Amino acid sequence: MWVSPEDVLLAGALWITERANPYFILQKRKGHGDGGGGLAGLLVGTLDVVLDSSARMAPYRILYQTPDSLVYWIIAHGTSRKEITEHWEWLEHNLLQTLSIFENENDITTFVKGKVQGIIAEYNKNHDVKEDDDTDKFKEASAKFRKLFGMPEEEKLVNYYSCSYWKGKVPRQGWLYLSINHLCFYSYLLGKEVKLVVRWADITQLEKSATLLLPDMIKVSTRTNEHIFSVFLNINETFKLAEQLANIAMRQLLDNKGFEQDRSLPKLKKKLPKKVSALKRDLDARAKSERYRALFRLPKDEKLDGHTDCTLWTPFNKMHILGQMFVSTNYICFTSKEETLCSLIIPLREVTIVEKADSSNVLPSPLSISTKNRMTFLFANLKDRDFLVQRISDFLQQTTSKIYVERELNGSLNSSDDEVYSQHGSLLSSSPQHSLGSEGERTFNLNDSSVPTATQALMTMYRRRSPEEFNPKLAKEFLKEQAWKNHFAEYGQGVCMYRTEKTKELVLKGIPESMRGELWLLFSGTINEMATHPGYYEDLVEKSMGKYNLATEEIERDLHRSLPEHPAFQNEMGIAALRRVLTAYAFRNPNIGYCQAMNIVTSVLLLYAKEEEAFWLLVALCERMLPDYYNTRVVGALVDQGVFEELAREYVPQLYDCMQDLGVISTISLSWFLTLFLSVMPFESAVVVVDCFFYDGIKVIFQLALSVLHANIHHLLGCKDDGEAMTVLGRYLDSVTNKDSTLPPIPHLHSLLTDNGEPHPEVDIFKLVRSSYEKFGFIRADVIEQMRFKQRLRVIQTIEDTTKRNVVRTIVTETAFSIDELEELYVLFKAEHLTSCYWGGSSNPTERHDPSLPYLEQYRIDMEQFKGLFNLLFPWANGAHSDPLATRFFSLLDHNGDTLINFREFINGLGVLCHGDLTEKLKLLYKMHVIPGECALIVNHTIFVHFTVKKLNTPDYRHYLKLWNQETRHKLENTKDLPKLNQTQFIELCKTLYSMFSEDIAEQELYHATATVTSLLLEMGEVGKLFSSPGRKDHNMVGKSEPSMCLADGTDPKATQEAGLADVFQQKDQSHAFVPADMENQPSPEGKGEEGNEQVPPMQDIKLEEDSPKDVVTSSAMLISDDETKDDTSMSSYSVLSAGSHELDEKLQCEDIADDTVLVGLPHSTSVDKDWAITFEQFLASVLTEQALVHYFEKPVDVAARITNAKNVHKVGRPLLSTSDYEISLSG
């Protein structure tokens, strides 16, 4: 490629000059290609790899130099000799003569530089090359990565790092390349080349560890190998990036969401020399945004714009707190350096004024932000205040316009929506006047008028109080409410409140019943999603009402199992509200739909929040706070189960081994985590856990679970089996009570099912929660995320392995492949699917992979993917001619016509070719041509038939015919059911047969056999045409007609037969190998071969009279005994041959024809004969007459060798050669 001219001081160092003229020099890098320059070349190659100069140095380059100058300019470089030679020849033809005109060397230099830059600009314009942020150095590294590992342009390199790869006990210094879909390593040391390619989707473990020998190393494990990398300059950065990319791959396996680059990143101000790609910046930005969203519970599409150090004035303690300000599209957030001191969330929709205050020594660079509820926040010590204010102003403008558009839209849809909007605003703003039970709440009916609709939290409608417990408990509840109101007065109320350690203390003491719903909305961040989506829930309910699918069926089944002991769900109002919320969510997120346990959680949400609020709380739970918990395979819960096991091993080690032996941890954790303890604790206690969960996230559940184990450690150590352990834990959890609850005691189902043993002493829920914070409160959310990543790899790969085993178990009885072979084939099948997801395909990946489908249907491949596997695995694949055959094969296997085939269909097709008998294979080949092919029949106007006929011994095919006759009697009806092959389809079949043999050892013999079979079938078709011609008045007379009618007929089939063969074959080339007739440039007189679809009139059976001519060459059927002929009536359809066929057969069989004799056909008609047809029995019998063809189709297939070859082929289809000095490890 042409490059912007750069000066080079030492043109000869490490380079060999190959061509030169007065102005230009073409050079090759030492150590590249054949004859790499001996020891010096080896050293240069090694230095290039170790010092990363190979990323900058292409192996060929062109330098420009004027005769009197010592400075050289590089103007082009190339990765191949062909590329650089094209540039060199262009220079010689276009520039060399022009340069001789100039007198001044400076003018020549200016001209050459301008010309090269003009060429680059023109190329960029013509090829629509967009400017990106990648540095030149990174682009060169990316080009080298694609060249080294054979990756296509679609495979984007993210970053590359210098490191050592431990191959055995020897470290190989080289470069680790991390791309979107692959981890690759390359090393070249003193002539020894090492390459490694691992798909992220194949990685089962990725961990950073340290040993005495290797202080910092990254271990990458797949199902079959372990790879160790060490000696990193920045191991933390490398490992974080590897984690991110592996996570993206796991996400793709889980729900088929591939990686899409974020094009909205801000441009770099200048080209930095640092080797950072736009993709790396994108991934870094994603990671930061993810941490930001998790920290402040923001909607999942919120993107962090930037952050800066600052101080915040906190009026409640009159201090300037040091911390960080975060600015994103819709929010300004703050968190103190001391994590628990203070945090703040200010939605831009609440902001009214942003202004720069006057600086002073006490308060440098202050910034004041005022909100709608008359709160003012004062930030100071901002480094780049002007820029920050500008960014906030821009985002405010976008927010204002967004609100305006929503109002306009809602106003146009419904005139009463303006009022609705203002009421929403009062609910969701941080106005201190608002409370949950305020009057004038919006009322809507989401169902038909006969069913009452919940317009407030169900608990407020079904609250019952016991008179004897009324005073003391209610007094305590009143004190709690008063404490929260005082807190709001001091720290603010609503979304903009200051969140401090005091807020956490109040949560741990218990949230009052009347405030629970409001505070759940606030702490979970749901209030933000609800505010930005007015009317969304109502629309969703309206759309989902009356629609049925699998999710709605499951919802209906579980409705009456959701807190049935609570009076709110013992009538239609509560049940209807629950139905609407669950159904609306199932329609919002079809990937999850509905999962058991969602009903229990949602019913509790409905007790404390209004219907729409409960819906958004469910959204927050399923999509943010408990990710992947409620999908079809509860992956998130399984991941957290693994995290819990790891935490138990670390913090209750004395109990861990015992629990593992009993298998209890996996049993308890699923029920505890999926329902947030709601299904295992008394209701009034479990809601306290939910309070803490919405405030502090998943760490609360882990802390509490560890506390429960720790409290029962002695009892559990004495348990002999899992049942006893479960009873111990069940009794303990049943005894957890909430003495402050004002609710009447609700019988707990779990306790009703336990035995009548001595009850466990009561455990106070508030003491248990506080104890969990004291003992395990140091577990950080970011540590849990790190552990989740490790477990996610394990869980998803285990699920993939389970899927593979289930698929193999399902179809192992249907095929002759062994279990090991099926597993290997499944891996290849899945890999082909994944590759197309990476680099595009003709169909949408989400259509081909749906984890909710049955195992067999989860991965499906389309036509293009099938072609790749066909070439690697199928015995009939044959280079350039494979595609048309693969297309026909795919159409045959695609039973439902959705242009996708699943693994069973794929194996059925491959099984016939690898393990099927001769009849099955020929039937498959025949059926592939009966269905309409994509290729239209194209006939030449004047064609010649060319055959080299060799004298062959007539094979003894009687044995095969007898075998076939015996084996297929029970299949006779099925065989007869096959439609006939018309002339168009027959010629396509001949082409297929012809192309299949082009690389076979017995090629010449097979071509002769094909020619003989084709001639025979053409004659049979002609005979059949005579007796089933549409021109006859009475088809029933055919069976009674005399044989002399056949012979006396004026039709001479000879020309037609020869012409039909001419369509298939042409003269042999110099190597005596036949090549298919090249007809692509000829127009089709029949359009698109539509005649191939027409039904041919059925052939009538023809009796062979005793006075038939004895000298006619008999067909294969006539060589069977009379009894066999009587038994097998299918033979009668081709029992007579015309005199014309006898004449041609004599030409082909005659012994005195020389080996190099050529038969030449005459010009023939271009029309397709509609009456001509053959049956499958005729095709089979004709093939059986040729020993060479029989041997070809009965030849055993080495399946293991084909699978091994397919595994060794590079993921993009290029074989990797393995030689003594070139080692490849391909994992997965």
TrEMBL record:
Keywords: GTPase activation, Repeat. Residues 415-448, 1028-1053, 1077-1096 are annotated as: Disordered. Residues 510-697 form the Rab-GAP TBC domain. One of its GO terms (biological process) is system process. GO terms for molecular function: calcium ion binding; GTPase activator activity. InterPro entries: EF-hand-dom_pair (IPR011992), EF_hand_dom (IPR002048), GRAM (IPR004182), PH-like_dom_sf (IPR011993), Rab-GAP-TBC_dom (IPR000195), Rab-GAP_TBC_sf (IPR035969), TCB1D9/TCB1D9B_PH-GRAM1 (IPR036014), TCB1D9/TCB1D9B_PH-GRAM2 (IPR036017). Residues 423-436 have a biased composition (Polar residues). It comes from the Eukaryota. Residues 881-916 form the EF-hand domain. SUPFAM superfamilies: EF-hand, Ypt/Rab-GAP domain of gyp1p. Pfam families: GRAM, RabGAP-TBC. May act as a GTPase-activating protein for Rab family protein(s). This is TBC1 domain family member 9. It comes from Monopterus albus (Swamp eel).
